[in-house]
Batch of 3 targets.
Target 1
Amino acid sequence: MNQEPAESSIVVCPDGPLIVRGDFEIVTPSGDPVPRERKTVALCRCGASAIKPYCDGTHKMIKFRTEPPVG
Amino acid sequence: MKIPEARGPLSSALFTALSVTAGTGDATTRVEELRRLVTGELVGTTDVIGDDDVQLALFCLYELHYSGLEGVSDDWEWEPGLIQVRRLLERPFEEALRAAAQSAAGELDLPPAAEMTSDAVADVLFGLAGTDTGPSVSRYVAKKASLDQLKEFLIHKSVYQLKEADPHTWAIPRLTGRPKAALVEIQADEYGGGRPDRMHSALFARTMRGLGMDDQYGAYVNAVPAISLAAVNMMSLFGLNRRLRGAITGHLALYEMTSSRPNRLYGNGFRRHGFDTGVTHYFDEHVEADAVHEQIAGRDLAGGLVEAEPGLLGDVLLGATAAMAIDGRISTHLLACWENGETSLRAAVPAAA
C-alpha cells in the first residue's frame, strides 16, 4: 500500500465475507453495540448467514460470487 | 496426563523406560531395548495409521513436549534415545500420511507455485475443502445420535480439543512476516483473546462437564482407537518439524475451512437432546470464529507462506489433504459403528456406558 496504514482495515474476501480488523465499533441503527466476541470479525456479504451481521461460512454453500459473471 | 494402558510391545517398552530416571544407565538400556523393538516391529506393520501400539507410543512421545506425563520427569523430553525412537516412528507415519493424502487429493491441476498469489492458494484450499464429501458425522450428530453417541463423539474429540490449537502454535517461531502475523491472530482468538475461560479448550471442557464427563486432559485416551490418536499425532508431526511448516499451515487452513457448518450441526445435535448454551457454546463459538479463521488461514497464513516460499506449496497441500484423509477415516469409523448400533470406542468407558 502506498498510503499511511489506517487504524482499521476491511479485507474484501473474494466470494466471501468482509474481514474487519483494527479499532472499530459495530452498532445497531440506534447506536447500541452489537454483541461482539472477537477483535477481528467477518461480516456477512452474501446475505445468507444465520448469525448476521457475522459470517458463518454459508456463502460457500450457496456459491456466492463477488465478481460479475463473465460474458 | 496419566500414563495410559499399553497397547502392545512398543508402548509397553516405552512406559517401562519412562518409569526410571532419565539419563541413568538403566534408562539407556531400556531405551535401547525400545529402539530395537521399534526397528523390528515396524517391519511387520502394514497400516501405521491404524496401529494402536505405534499411535499410542507416538502420542505419548509427543505428549512429553506438551503437558508431560504424570510421574515422568521432564528430563525425558530431549533424551536423545527417545528422540531417535520418535523419528523411527515418524518416518513410516509420514510416509503413510503422504500416501493417504495423495489419494484424498485426486488430480490437482495447478499453475507453477512461483506464479500463485495468496488468493490463488486460498482458492485451491477452499476448492479442496469443498470436495470433502465423505460421510457426514455432523449430519448424523444433528439428526440421529443418541446421548451415548454424543458422549462418544466428545471422547474422540477430547484427545485434541482439550489442547486445541497447541500443535499449530509450534509453527509460530518457524514463520515470519505475513504468515506469522496471521497465525498469531488466529491463535490469539483460539486462546480466548486474553480471557482464559474463553479459550477453546476451556469451552470444550465446559461442554464435557455439561454431559457429566471428566474434562481432565487425557482422561479418555484409553478409550479412543488408533485413528483418533493419529489425527493428533499428525498435527504434532507437522508442528514439531520445521521442515513440515508448510503442512501445518495447510492443515490449519483445511480444518478451519471445514468447521463452521459442521459445528452448527454438532450444536443442533446437543440442542436436540435438550442441552443449553453452556454445552453448545463451544460449537456456536466455532461457527463464528472459524468463518473468520478460514479466510485468514487460507489467504494470509497458507497463501502468504507460499508467496514467500513457493517451494512449500506441495507441503501446504500435503497438510490439507492429509487432514481430509484422516478426518474421512475417522468419520467412516464412527458412522460404521453407530449405524450398526456398536460403540466406536476401544472399550466401554464408565461415562459413556
Target 2
Amino acid sequence: MWTLLQIELFKISKRPRTYIAFAAVAAIVFIFQFAFKADGQSYMDLMLQSVKDTFTFDRVQAINGYFMCYIILNTLLIQVPILIALIAADSISGEANMGTLRLLISKPISRTQLILVKFAAATIFTIFLLLWMAVTALFMSLLIFGTGDMLVFRSKGDESQILLITKDDIMWRYLAAFAYATVALTVIAALSLLLSIFAENSIGPIIATVCIVIVCTIISNINVPIIDKNVKPFLFTSYLVGWKGFFYIGTDADGKTIRGSLENWPAIRKSLLILIAHIFILVTAAVVVFKKKDILS
Amino acid sequence: MSLIIEVNHLSKKFGDILAVNDLSFTVNQGDIYGFLGQNGAGKSTTIRMLLTLIHPTAGNIKLFGKDLSANRSAILQQVGAVIEKPDLYKYLSAYDNLSIFAKMSGIKVTRQLLMQQLQMVGLEDRAKDTVRTFSQGMKQRLGIAVALVHNPALIILDEPTNGLDPQGIADIRNLILRLSKEMGKTVLISSHLLSEIELIATRMIILHKGKKMVEGNVATLLDPAHTLIEIETLDNTTAKHLLAQSQWAAFVQPGNQLQLMMDKIKVPQLINFLVSGGVQLLSVNSSHSLENYFLSLTTQSGNVDAFAN
C-alpha cells in the first residue's frame, strides 16, 4: 500500500498540472498582499464605517498578517475546490484517458487498494495545497504586515459584528482552521474521485464537481425554512466555511471576548463529523462502483 | 503437461449484445496460443476477462489451476500483458514507467534489472527520455518490457505487433519464440497478422461472433488433411446443389464461393464426381495457409476487410 502511495505521489509530482494549483494560490495571495500593502487603508475605512463612532482602533495596526490571512482565506477557500478537482477528478479518468488504467488493473493490486491509494494521494495533495496556503497567506503576510491583534468582521443575521482576538490567542485558531479546511476540501477530493470513475477524460469530472459545488453552495445560501430544515443539513457545502467558527471567539456577559474560547464548539464538531461522514460515504461509493466497473478504455 | 489457462463456459453480455458466448478453451504450459477472430469476435473482451478488467456474465476462469476471481492478486503476479495499445505515462521516462509497473507487480526493483529489460527491447539509450517523444514502435517495445519485467510465467499479448515495422515485427516474433522455447513461458497472443501467428503459434483458437469455431494444434489444423479447396465452375449454383446431395456436403463452407475443407488426397475423387455430374470445371485450387483456413471458417462474402493486411 505504501509503495502504491509513493508511486501515486511520484506521478502527481511529475505532472505539470499539479503546480497550476500552487501557482494560482501564490498569485491570488500575492495580489491580495500587494493590494492591501498599497491601499489597505481604504478597505479598513469601508469595513469600519458603520462603527467608527463606537469603536476605536488603530486602522493601520489592524492590517496585520493575521488579519490579511483571514481576508485571503475568506476568498480563497471558496475557489480552492476547483483546484482540488483539477487533481482528484483526474485520478481514474486520467488513467482511463491515457490508457494506463487497464495496465494498472491487470497488476496484482486490488481495485479497492487502487481507489484508496488514489484517495490518499488526493488528500495528501489537499494537505500540501493548504500548507502552501498557510505559508503564503499566513507566514508571508506576517512577514510583510507584522503581527498584532486581529479584527474579525462577522455578519450574524441582520447584524454586523466585529470581534477582537488578541495576538497570543490566534495561531492555534489558524492551525485548527487549516485542519478543518483540510477535512472540508477532502470532501471535494472524494466527490471528484467518485465522479472520475464514470468518465474517460478528466474534463467531465472536473466540470461536474465544480457544478455540484456551485449548485449546493447556492442551495446552502437560500434562506427558506423548508430548505433550512430538510436540505441544508445534508449538503456538505453548508459546512465548507465552518473553519470560520474557530475565529468566532466566545464572549462573557459583558460582551468581552474570552481568551482561548470558541463561541460554538459543538457546532464545529458536528460540522466536522458531517464532513467526515460525507468523505466516508463518497469513498465507499467510489470503491463499490469501481469494483463493479468493466474497464473498456 | 499442466494447464495454465482453463476457460469454462465463459460469457459476457454488454446490454443486449452477447460479446462472448459460452466460450471454453485451455492453454497448456509452454504453448504459444494464437487467439484469432475478426474485429468484434470477442478476442479483446476475453483477454480483458483473463486480466480481470471485465467481469464475466457467466462461466469461470482458472489460471495456474486456481480460480481467478478468488486468487486474483496471486495469479496476476505471474501474468504479464500488453493490452491493445501499450499506453504508458507519457510525461514519465521509459525508466520511470518500467520502474512503476515493476513495483506494482510486487518485485524488488533494481537499476540493473530495469536496464536489462530496456536493453532487451533496444531502449537502453532512451531510458531517460519521456515516452511522449517515442514512436509507436518504441512504445510497443517498452510495453513489452513492462509486461516482462517481473518475469511472468504467462504472457498475454493483444496485438503486440501493432505499429511495428517489418524488422520490429520480426524482433517481436523472435522474442516470443525465445520466451517460449528457451524460458518455458506460456504465451497467449492475438493478432490480425495471421501469417505471424502461423509462424509462431503451437495451438490456436478461432472465435467468431463471440463463439469458438475451432481450437487445436496449428500443425493439425493446417494439416493437408484439412486443406481448403476452391472450385471455380461455369455454374456454381448447380455444382453446389449437386454437392449438397452428396458425401461432400459436410465439407462445403458457407458463402457464395464454392469452397470445401477436405483431405487433399481426395481431390481427384471430387473432380470425378463433379465432372460425372455434368459440371464444367474452370479451376481447382488448394491452399492450407492459416489465412485461408481462417477465412473459410469465419467469413461470409464481403466480410474480409479486417484481414486485408
Target 3
Amino acid sequence: MPAVSFDKVSRHFGSVRAVDGVDLDIGEGEFFAMLGPSGSGKTTCLRLIAGFERPTAGDIRLFGDSVRDLPPYRRQVNTVFQDYALFPHLNVRDNVGYGLMIAGRPRAERDREVAAALEMVRLGGYGQRKPSELSGGQRQRVALARALVNRPRVLLLDEPLGALDLKLREQMQEELKSLQRQLGITFVFVTHDQGEALSMADRIAVFNEGRIQQVGTPEDVYFRPDVPFVADFVGSSNVLPAALVETLTGRRQPAAIRPERLRLGSGSGGALSAQVTGLSFLGLTTRVTLKAGDTRLTALLPQDAPRPAEGDTVSLEWAPSDLHLMRGSA
Amino acid sequence: MHSDRAPLGLKIAAAAGLAFLHLPILLIFVYAFTTEEKSYQWPPPGLTLKWFAVTWNRPDVWQALMLSLKVASVATLVAMVLGTLCAAAVSRSKFFGRETVSLLVILPIALPGVVTGIALRSAFSLADVPFSTWTIVLGHATFCVVIVYNNAVARFRRTSGSLIEASMDLGATYFQTLRFVILPNIATALVVGGMLAFALSFDEVIVTTFTSGQQQTLPIWMLEELVRPRQRPVTNVVAMVVVLVTLLPILGAYYLTRGTDTVAGQGK
Amino acid sequence: MSTAAHSAAGGPLARLSDALWRSPRLLLAILLGPPLLWLGVIYLGSLFALLLQSFFSIDHFTGMVVREFTLRTYAELFTPANFDIIVRTVTMAACVTLASAIIGFPIAYYAARYARGRWRAAFYLGIMMPLWSSYLVKVYAWKLILAKEGILNWALDGIHLQWVLDAYLSLPVVGGNSLSVSPTGTFIVFVYVWMPFMILPMQAALERVPVSMLEASGDLGAQPGQTFRHVLFPLALPGVVAGSIFTFSLTLGDYIIPQIIGTSRLFIGQAVYQHQGVAGNIPLAAAFAVVPILIMGLYLWGAKRMGAFNAL
C-alpha cells in the first residue's frame, strides 16, 4: 500500500491551476523528491499532503485512507518548513516538545523524548536556547527534531536546505539520507535544485505548470527524460526539436542529447553542422556553445580534445544510442 | 551635506519647535501649586500644596474620574477584541474587500470627531436609545478599534504565517494554536494597543459631548470648568493629574515597543 | 492502520476546529463578523442616518423635522452667514496645516537625519508626549498663557515689547481685544495641538530619503537651498500630505478650541454642535457635518493619487 497517493488531484486558486490533475503514488519508506521550478505546483502538493491546502478536485490517501476531510492536526504527517517556523517565544526544548505537549503526554516522558530527539540531530544540551540564538543549520536541526519526535509516518520537507550555505548543505544532505535510512519512514521533500534531488532521492517527480512531467529514479529522469522540459531542467541536455530530428532519423519526435556526448569534428562529416558562438573554460572541461540553424546547443569537451575557435563552423557527431527520443513537441 | 553635523539654523529651529510643544504643558505643573485663586496670574504669588487636598475631597472630581476609568476600561476591552479579530482576518487571508475593511476601521478617526459624535447621537435618538455609560462606551470603542488594529496588524505581519501551520502540523487545533502560539506572540502588541486605546479614551471629549447625556467624564468636567470656571485651582490640579495619567500608558507603550517596528502613535 | 489516530482528540472545540478547517469562509466570518457588525452596522449605520437627516428639513414655525426628501437644508448652507462659517473653517484648516508643516519640518528633519541613539529616543518621546497629552489640558494651558494676567503679557512687559502685540491686535481680521479672543489666538492653539500629527508622518517620509541622495545632489553642484527644493521637498511631500490629512481633518471638525479661545464667530464644528443642541435643527446640523466629510473625501482622494498613504 502506498504511503501517499494522489488521485487526479487539482488545486486551483481562482483561475490559477497550481496543481492540475496529479496522479502519484509514493511508497512506504521511500525518499521521494518533488522537483520543479518555482510556481510549478510542487510546494502546493506538499501542502496538500500536510493538510494546509484542500484539493479542489480529486482525493489524497495516506496509507489507503482518504484524508480529504482531515485537518493537519489529525494526520500522522509532520513538516519541516522552509523558514523552519520555530516558535520564537519558546526555547528549543519546548519547541521540540510542542507536539507531545499538545498530545497530552506527561512531562517526564516528554523531556525524555525531547532529549533523545535533540541527541539524534546532535543538539544535545541546546534545550534552553531560544531559536534566535541558533545558527541557520542549528535551527534546521531543531525543526527536524520537532517533526520527528512525534514519530510521523511521513515526513515532509519544504526546501529543507534552501537557506543553508553550500558546505552545510552538502553535509545536511548526507545527514538527511542516513537519518531516513535509519528511521525507515517516508520522506517527501520539495526542491528546485536538481542536484539535490538527484543525489538524495530514491525517486523524483518533476513538476511543471501544475502537472507532473515525469516520475522515476534519478537515472531515469537524468538519462531518459520523457519530455523536453525534463531534459532541459534536470539534465541541462540539448533538446533537438521534432522537425530537426525528423531530418536526422525520419521520426517526428523531439530528442535529447547530453552535452558530454557531443563530439566536434571539422569539415562536413558529421550529422549536423553548427557554428561556434562561445567558449568557456570550466577546468576539467570546456563548454562550447553552438548554433545549428535555430537550435542552440551546448557541448562539453574534455581537456585534451582540440578546441575550436569562436566563429568556426564545425560538424557535430554522436553515437546513435546517445540520441534519446522523447514524447511531446518542442 | 557631507558632514553628519546638523547646521546651526536647523538645530535652533528644531529646538524652538520642541520648546513650543513642551513649555505650555510644563506651565500646567507650576499652576497646580499657585496660591492665586481668582485669576491666572503669572508669576504665581506663592506656592502651596493646599489645592491637592481640596481636589482630593471633591466628590464631583472623583465621580468624573471613576466614570472615565470605567468607560476607558470597557472601551479598551471591546476595542482589543474587535481590533484583534479584524487584524487577524485582514493579515491571514486575502479576501475580497480587504481594503474596504481597513478603510472602515480607520474611518472613525479619519473623519472629524464632531461627525462621529453627531452621527452616533442622531442614531441614538432615532433608535430611542437613552444616554448612559454604555452610549459613551459605544462611541469610544468605535474609534479605539483602529489603535489596537494598527498595532496588531503590524505584529501579525512580522509573525511568520507558517507558525500557525507549524502548530497545526504538530497536532494543535485552531484553539490550541490560538492559546499556545498566536496569543503569546501578539501579546505585547495587544498590551501596547490596549494602553494607547485607554489613553485615547480617557482623554476623549469631542465625541463624548454628543454621547454622554447628563453624565460627566473627567474631560467633560474639565470642559465645563474651561467654559465656566468655578474653582480654578482645582482645575489646575486636575489638569496636572490628567497629564500624568495619560503619559503613563504612553511611556509604557514606548518601552514595550522600543526597537520594534510598531510606532506607538500610529493613527491616533 | 488508521491515519486518523493523531493526537487531537474529540470534544466540541476540536469538532468546531475541524469545521473551521473544512470551511475557511466560516473562519473568516467568525473573525470578521463582530468588527464588521460593530463598525459596519453601528458606525456606518449612524453615518448613513446622519446623511439621511441632512436631506430632511425643519419647519421653522413648529420647530419639527419634516421627514421629506428636500435639498432645502443644503441650500441653507449657502446663505451668507452659513457659507461664511464654511469659508472661515476651511481657511483656518489650510493655515494651520501650512504652519504645522513649516514649524514641524525642522523637528522632523532633524529627528530623521541627525538624531542618533539616545537623542533619537528623546526626539521620539519629545514628539509623542505632546501628541498624547490630554487635549483639554493643552487647550487649558493656552488659556493660562494668553490670559491678560498670564505669562505672555508678563514676558512682553518684561522686555518692553507690549506695544508690538497691541499694534498687531489692532489689525483687522486677525486682531481683537486680546490674543485669547482673536482669530490669531485660535490659530496658535490649533497649530499647537495638531502639529505633532504633522511631524510623525513627515519624519517617516524623511527617514526613507537616503542620505546618499542628498549628497549626490550636493556633488552635482546644488546649493543646500536647491537640494531642499528639488530633492528633499519632493521626497518629503507624501509625508506632508499624509500629515496634512490629520491637521486638516482635525481642524475642520474641532469645536472646542474656537469656543474657548477665539472670537464669537462660529466654525463648522460649533455650528454642528449648536444646531443639533440648542436650536434642535438636526437636518441643518447634519448638512453642516456632511461638509467636512465631503472635503475630507476629496482631500483623501487627492492624497491617495499622490501616494501619501504609503507614508502613514
